[in-house]
Amino acid sequence: MAKLYGLGVGPGDSELMTLKAVRLIRECDIIVLPKSGQEINAAYTIAKGSVPEIDEKELMEVSMPMTRDKEKLMQSHDLAADQIIEKLKEGKNVAFLTLGDPSIYSTYIYVHERVLDKGHEAEIVPGITSFCAVAARLNEGLTEAGQPLHVIPASYEGSEEALQLTGTKVLMKSGKSIGRIKDQLLKMEPSPNVKMVERCGMEGERVFHNTDEIDENASYFSILVVKDKK
Fold first, then answer.
1. CATH of the structural domain 3-125, one choice from 3.40.50.150, 3.20.20.70, 3.40.1010.10, 3.40.50.2300
2. Residues 6 or more apart from 130 whose CB is under 8 A from it?
3. Which SS3 state, helix, strand or coil, does residue 182 take?
């Protein structure tokens, strides 16, 4: 029975792709690329760095618009799942490329659930998460001993309350909210240790070592790490 694989290609550096992801890209009949309106597909660019022959595969784009309109999102997820199921019915194995890890704020998971619900096989293949790559780029750990780790979708409501949690806070999906988050961080007492990496492992990578340095116009691919002062 043909299977859908949700492949995490990691955060940006092609060398951080897993051996399993590379193997499955080579073995699968069809490679699915999520299309969100960006001119360059980041997941495809990463994969091509480790699997140059990816262009020899049948590439299929599915629309994954960056919107919070629930109806539009449901329509796009339904359509993507239906397109993939048609290929599975033809007996073709399909690899859906996604940044980082498919289980962390990934649009893939909505397609995964729909494909399973309709009686087809689907498997999640983990990848290195963006915040783990950021910690490595900063050359420091995220947690020690009994410290908790909180992963926060920064562009959604509740980020201000989440910043008050004890332990390390990782802020993802910052997008256009970076300016608001920066203001919240500057008002915190005592002031935490804050660092941010933009486009980690990608072209144009930038590292910010404190709250004041943070560029409010940084790209969507920006991760903030907020730690309590020791």
1. 3.40.1010.10
2. 11, 12, 99, 100, 104, 172, 200, 221, 223
3. helix
Cβ atoms of residues 197 and 138 within 8 Å: yes
Retrieve residue 83's tokens.
Answer: 């397109």
Per residue of the chain (230 residues), give pLDDT as tens: 899 999 999 999 999 999 999 999 999 999 999 886 554 588 999 999 999 999 999 999 998 877 777 888 899 999 999 999 999 999 999 999 999 999 999 999 999 999 999 999 999 999 999 999 999 999 999 999 889 999 998 877 778 888 999 999 999 977 778 989 999 999 998 889 999 999 999 999 999 999 999 999 898 889 999 998 87
